[in-house]
Structures are given as structure tokens and as C-alpha cells.
Specification:
Elements (H helix, E strand, L loop, with lengths): L1 E3 L8 E4 L1 H7 L3 H4 L14 H12 L5 E8 L5 E12 L5 E10 L1 H37 L5 H24 L5 E2 H9 L4 E4 L4 E2 L1 H20 L9 E8 L3 E9 L12 H13 L3 E7 L2 E9 L7
Parallel strand pairs: 7-9
Antiparallel strand pairs: 1-2, 1-5, 3-4, 4-5, 6-8, 9-10, 10-12, 11-12
Helix pairs in contact: 4-5, 4-7, 4-8, 5-6, 5-7, 6-7, 7-8
Length: 302
């Protein structure tokens, strides 16, 4: 605690107890006669100082604020400051009584609690995204034989898991679209091109499943199911949307069997329901053309 005298120029400290000296590292001779602002430093918030000034000017019964102060050795601490005016019999302020409490540990605990809450919220959101994708896969995947069902589900969940690993490698800051495309389509004869685009985390896993389905569909029913078939994936983006263009072309007389497959229904479902985007799938001679538009802004899981 300290006591200051506002009747003297610059409201100097006239009394400081030992606890204040221990907290700040100063001696009594270095404190008495100085205004308390000497505890302020480069990172002391101006808003906190203004709150003190405004509260004292209004003659409030007490002013309470938490601000960053500095010790004699230059180290900082969070000061839970309480200032109360002392009046004489006529109502005039003759002293200010101020108590200081080192709130650094308490503030750190609050920050850790807030960080933990934010982290848990983010983990919950990521889990909901992944579970929503798996739920879509299980609902839409159909097969007459258990082995076929298992194989289809494993491939789709594997694409989601691979994207999860990519996000983890990038500390969940997102993923480069080219890296994601190479992971899902690199083993296939597909021309992949587009500018560097950092995908936000919520887009990565759904897009991995979309690319997986397009690749599998091309192998089973599209241009990659015939000799010399060609497939390309190109993209670009603006500040709001990602645009993907999937193009298949069969070379020569061999033409693919363009039966509508389950994979394309999954593509449509994920683009529209999971990502809130638009998709135009156009089976044509030589293979599939897919025009996909995906918003890059965060949206809740549907």
C-alpha cells in the first residue's frame, strides 16, 4: 500500500509500506516524494491510465483497475490497483490510499483458462467437421457385399485421415491446396495446376474427400478407366471463393462408361451441405466435367 498527497504538486507518495517495497524492488527513499506513475512502462495500457485519471476526476468512492507495472529491475507484473480517496471534515480530498496486489499469477490462470476453453472449442469444432464427413460417408456408401462396403468406407475415411495428418503437420493453420491435391491424386495420371492457395482448416478435410471421390470416379467410370484418358485439375481463388475445374477427356475411340456413381453424390453432398458451395457435374463424351465453387469463410457444420 501507498498513501499520496494530492494537495502537493504532482500528488507525491508520502508513505509506502514494506510490502510495496518488496513488490517493486525500490527502497523507501526511492519511492517517497514521487508520483506513482514511475511504475508505468512501455507496455502499460493507456486505457488503464485513463480509467484511473477519469475515476479520480469524478471523485469516485474508489477506482479499481488492473494494469501492467514495472519493478526496479525492469521486470513487469500485473498490478491489481485499488485507489480510494480520504476526505477531511469539509469533504475535500487530502490523501489517496492505494493498495497494490500482484495479480500476475491470477491473470496467467485466467489466460490459460481462456486458452484452454478456446482450444477445447476448436478441437470440438474439428471433431464435428470430421464426424460430419464420416457420417455422410456411412450414409451414402452402399454395397451388396460387406467387403465392398468396407473397402469403400476405408478409402473415404482414409482420405479424411490423410487430410487430418496434413493439418496436424501444419499446426492446424490450414494447408496448401497443391499439397492436398498431391496427397489425394499424386498416384494418378492427373495434370494438377493452380496458384499457391492456403486453405482454411475447415475446408481441408471435406475437399480431400471431394478429390478422392473425383479420382476414384475417373478410375472406375471416367477418363482414367480407358487407355490414354486424360484428366486435369485446375484452380484459382479470389478473396471469397475457391474455384475448382475438373476436366476429363478420352483420347481415341475408347470411351468411358459414364454411369452416375455414388462418389459423385458424395461430392455433391459435401460441397453443398458441408461447405455451403456450388457444384456443376456434367458427364460428357470423354469423361466428367466438374465445376466447383467453395466459400473460403468459416461456416458452421451442417
Amino acid at each position: 500500500m501507498v498513501v499520496s498527497d494530492p494537495t502537493r504538486p504532482d500528488n507525491p507518495i508520502v508513505l509506502a509500506n514494506q510490502a510495496f517495497l518488496d513488490l517493486t524492488g525500490y527502497t523507501a527513499d526511492e519511492v517517497v516524494g514521487r508520483n506513482c506513475r514511475f511504475l508505468q512502462g512501455p507496455d502499460t495500457a493507456k486505457s488503464a491510465i485513463e480509467n484511473i485519471r477519469r475515476g479520480l476526476a469524478r471523485g469516485q468512492h474508489f477506482v479499481e483497475v488492473e494494469l501492467l507495472n514495472y519493478r526496479k529491475d525492469g521486470s513487469s507484473f500485473w498490478n491489481q490497483l485499488l485507489i480510494s480517496p480520504v476526505h477531511d471534515d469539509k469533504g475535500s480530498v487530502i490523501y489517496y490510499f492505494a493498495s497494490q496486489k500482484d495479480a500476475s499469477s491470477m491473470r496467467l490462470a485466467r489466460e490459460l483458462a481462456a486458452t484452454e476453453k478456446a482450444l477445447l472449442k476448436e478441437v470440438d469444432h474439428r471433431s464435428m467437421n470430421a464426424l460430419a464427413l464420416v457420417e455422410s460417408v456411412l450414409k451414402l456408401t452402399k454395397a451388396d457385399r460387406v467387403e465392398d462396403f468396407s473397402r469403400a468406407v476405408q478409402g473415404r475415411v482414409g482420405a479424411i485421415a490423410s487430410a487430418h495428418r496434413l493439418l496436424s503437420e501444419n499446426n492446424w493453420a490450414g494447408a496448401e491446396l497443391s499439397d492436398l491435391a498431391q496427397r489425394e491424386l499424386g498416384s494418378l495420371a492427373i495434370e494438377i495446376s493452380g496458384p499457391a492457395i492456403l486453405l482454411p482448416p475447415h475446408v481441408v478435410q471435406p475437399l480431400a474427400l471431394i478429390l478422392h471421390e473425383l479420382g476414384k470416379n475417373a478410375q472406375m467410370h471416367g477418363a482414367l478407366s480407358v487407355r490414354d484418358g486424360q484428366v486435369s485439375l485446375r484452380w484459382h481463388a479470389d478473396e471469397t471463393f475457391l474455384y475448382l475445374l475438373w476436366t476429363e477427356r478420352a483420347v481415341g475411340n475408347a470411351q468411358p462408361d459414364l454411369r452416375p456413381g455414388l462418389g459423385l453424390r458424395i461430392v455433391t453432398s459435401v460441397v453443398q451441405a458441408q461447405l455451403g458451395g456450388q457444384v456443376d457435374l456434367a458427364p460428357r463424351e470423354g469423361g466428367l466435367s466438374a465445376d466447383i465453387k467453395i466459400p473460403l469463410a468459416m461456416r458452421p457444420v451442417v
